[in-house]
């Protein structure tokens, strides 16, 4: 069950990130965060009635939910900016850094260990990421692709969010942590949108692009739900390693449908990243 849920997260994240890039370029970061999380609240509400009140009354569980929500908010903002400004085929392989970040946190906090083959694959992944992130080697001056630095920052936040979702899902309930984070992000994003006097954009964007908004929201929310359920059955590092292989799917979609072009060394980096991430998902 854990492997199956992790692979479902892989598929939904791959398609979801491809659609997120399109949506944030149309609507902006805060509007999309609001839409995704509002729909998440609607999706998950029927499943949290029995667990919400008892969990909120437990200070330790409430702290976990609040910390996970805060980290995910920053992760989403940086993630969306990276996807909006960079090529998805360049940005997505860098997101593979989520694997070591999550694994390191799991090692220190819940004693999940990383083997020598896993460490070797992570080093190979770093080499691939360096190749795909570097636009030009001309005159030994590296021209870094747009969105790369934001993508690197995203991996830190998302790796932490992965760990907190796994830990929080075990401490509370997969449905509950997804509902709580969605409610938190929807509320914060709504407050921000209202403070900027952009409330009219919410209904306007929905009327014009409700199909895209709905698709993005369903894919992204289900990906997080499947990921959280996978951690009930397998270690966090393994679930992250498997689901992180979505980078290959998202990058492929970017190349096929967006017509993005890469230099030869970037193609090599993309291939290395994709293969290493898949192997890591299999053996981790």
User: What global shape is seen?
Assistant: globular
Query: What is the CA-based Rg, rounded?
Result: 18 Å
Provide the low-confidence segments as ranges.
none
Distance between the termini: 17 Å
Structural class: mainly alpha
- The overall strand count is 2
Account of the protein in words:
This protein is mostly helical and 284 residues long. It has one domain. It has 13 helices and two strands. It has helices at 2-27, 29-44, 49-56, 59-85, 88-94, 98-110, 116-133, 148-171, 174-195, 199-230, 236-243, 246-258, 264-283, and strands at 134-136, 143-144. The two termini are 17 Å apart.
Would you kindly provide a brief summary of this structure?
By secondary structure, the chain is mostly helical. It has helices spanning 2-27, 29-44, 49-56, 59-85, 88-94, 98-110, 116-133, 148-171, 174-195, 199-230, 236-243, 246-258, 264-283; strands at 134-136, 143-144. It has 13 helices and 2 strands.
């Amino acid at each position: 069950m854990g492997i199956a849920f992790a692979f479902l997260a892989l598929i939904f994240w791959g398609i979801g990130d491809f659609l997120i890039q399109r949506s944030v370029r149309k609507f902006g970061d805060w509007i999309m965060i609001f839409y995704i999380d509002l729909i998440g609240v609607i999706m998950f509400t029927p499943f949290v009635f029995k667990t919400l009140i008892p969990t909120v009354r437990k200070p330790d569980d409430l702290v976990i939910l609040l910390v996970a929500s805060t980290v995910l908010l920053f992760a989403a903002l940086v993630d969306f900016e990276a996807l909006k400004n960079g090529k998805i085929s360049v940005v997505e392989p860098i997101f593979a850094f989520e694997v070591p970040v999550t694994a390191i946190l799991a090692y220190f906090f819940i004693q999940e260990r990383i083997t020598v083959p896993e460490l070797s694959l992570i080093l190979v992944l770093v080499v691939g990421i360096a190749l795909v992130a570097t636009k030009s080697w001309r005159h030994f001056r590296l021209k870094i692709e747009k969105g790369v630095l934001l993508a690197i920052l995203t991996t830190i936040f998302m790796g932490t969010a992965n760990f907190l979702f796994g830990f929080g899902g075990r401490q509370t309930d997969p449905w509950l942590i997804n509902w709580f984070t969605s409610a938190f992000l929807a509320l914060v994003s709504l407050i921000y949108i209202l403070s900027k006097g952009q409330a009219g954009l919410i209904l306007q964007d929905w009327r014009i692009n409700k199909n895209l908004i709905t698709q993005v929201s369903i894919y992204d929310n289900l990906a997080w739900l499947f990921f959280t359920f996978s951690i009930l059955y397998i270690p966090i590092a393994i679930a992250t390693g498997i689901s992180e292989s979505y980078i290959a799917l998202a990058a492929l979609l970017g190349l096929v449908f967006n017509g993005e072009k890469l230099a030869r060394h970037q193609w090599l980096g993309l291939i290395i990243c994709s293969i290493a991430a898949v192997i890591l998902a299999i053996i981790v």
